[in-house]
């Protein structure tokens, strides 16, 4: 275990040194990421200022949802960059993945440490800023259980998005080309979870409840943190299913990744 951690740290350190060798480019990309994501929230804020609420959720309640999703997705985008389906699919197609298989180290660890995209910090900063403003404006009633559950919810969101990335990367073993369909659940899922679930049609809400359990990762924890009533009348345990949903998807992704490795055949390039 200590050897694996040491190897991962060396891989990440090499990635960081590589990115920081072009500091002007790094800061410009981080700033661009910040501006692109904060513009989306400013647009939402202007709309909610005009109509006061969306499905009974005020601006700062929606900001809580938005800030949690954006921050968690940004952290995942840094930690699981190596499993990004588009980039990973390119490595498979070019035969570079075969080079990793020849090295005497865990292939999963090598892929995980192959990318560490620091420019995503702009998205994380933006998400933390929105989340901090939401905390300040909502005056939430914090209890020891809520304080303990908040980081668990956040980690579950990161695990959920990371698991989807691992699944998407594994699919490229058979498709070779990049997988756009997985973006429906990663990028599309982040957009969906940034808003109250009442605004979606029944079929979509049911899909993201019983097929892809996204509703339990941000919406139901938010109901608990904000002391809001559950409009769908699920059992109270629904508020605490974030770790089951998030780490369950990550575990499924890791199992699927293992299956893909056992059945991987080189592209021959």
Task: Explain what the structure shows.
The protein is an all-alpha fold. Helices cover 70% and strands 1% of the residues. It has helices spanning 2-20, 23-51, 59-79, 85-93, 96-101, 107-113, 121-138, 144-175, 187-193, 202-211, 219-226, 242-262, and strands at residues 53-54, 57-58. It has a two-stranded antiparallel sheet with strand order 1-2. Helix 2 (23-51) runs antiparallel to helix 3 (59-79). The two termini are 33 Å apart. The mean pLDDT is 84.
Write the topology of this structure.
Layout (H helix, E strand, L loop, with lengths): L1 H19 L2 H29 L1 E2 L2 E2 H21 L5 H9 L2 H6 L5 H7 L7 H18 L5 H32 L11 H7 L8 H10 L7 H8 L15 H21 L7
Antiparallel strand pairs: 1-2
Helix pairs in contact: 1-6, 2-3, 2-7, 3-7, 3-8, 4-8, 8-12
Salient structural properties:
single chain, 269 residues, mainly alpha, two-stranded antiparallel ribbon, 12 helices, globular
Largest sheet: 2 strands, antiparallel
Secondary-structure content class: mainly alpha
Q: What is the ordering of alpha helices and beta strands?
A: HHEEHHHHHHHHHH
Distance between the termini: 33 Å
- Portion in beta strands: under 5%
Q: Low-confidence spans: pLDDT under 50, at least 5 residues?
A: none
Please tally the helical runs, counting DSSP H or I stretches of 4 or more residues: 12
* Helix percent band: 55-70%
- This entry's quaternary arrangement is single chain
Q: Tell how many strands the DSSP assignment holds.
A: 2
Query: What's the pLDDT, averaged over the residues?
Result: 84
Shape: globular
Rg, please?
20 Å
Q: What spatial order of strands do you see in the largest sheet?
A: 1-2
């Amino acid at each position: 275990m200590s050897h694996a951690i040491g190897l991962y740290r060396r891989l990440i350190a090499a990635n960081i040194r590589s990115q920081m060798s072009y500091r002007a480019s790094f800061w410009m990309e981080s700033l661009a990421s910040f501006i692109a994501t904060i513009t989306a929230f400013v647009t939402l804020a202007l709309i909610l200022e005009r109509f006061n609420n969306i499905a009974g959720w005020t601006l700062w309640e929606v900001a809580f949802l938005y800030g949690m999703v954006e921050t968690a997705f940004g952290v995942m985008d840094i930690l699981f960059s190596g499993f990004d389906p588009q980039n990973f699919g390119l490595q498979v197609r070019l035969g570079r993945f075969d080079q990793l298989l020849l090295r005497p180290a865990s292939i999963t660890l090598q892929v995980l440490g192959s990318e560490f995209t620091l420019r995503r910090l702009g998205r994380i900063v933006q998400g933390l800023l929105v989340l901090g403003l939401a905390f300040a404006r909502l005056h939430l009633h914090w209890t020891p259980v809520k304080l303990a559950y908040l980081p668990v919810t956040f980690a579950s969101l990161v695990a959920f998005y990371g698991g989807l990335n691992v699944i998407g990367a594994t699919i490229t073993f058979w498709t070779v080309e990049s997988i756009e369909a997985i973006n429906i659940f990663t990028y599309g899922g982040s957009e969906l979870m940034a808003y109250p679930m009442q605004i979606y049609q029944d079929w979509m809400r049911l899909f993201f409840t019983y097929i892809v359990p996204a509703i339990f990762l941000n919406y139901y924890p938010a109901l608990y943190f904000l002391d809001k009533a559950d409009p769908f009348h699920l059992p109270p345990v629904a508020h605490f299913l974030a770790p089951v949903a998030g780490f369950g998807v990550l575990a499924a992704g890791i199992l699927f990744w293992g299956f893909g490795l056992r059945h991987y055949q080189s592209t021959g390039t």
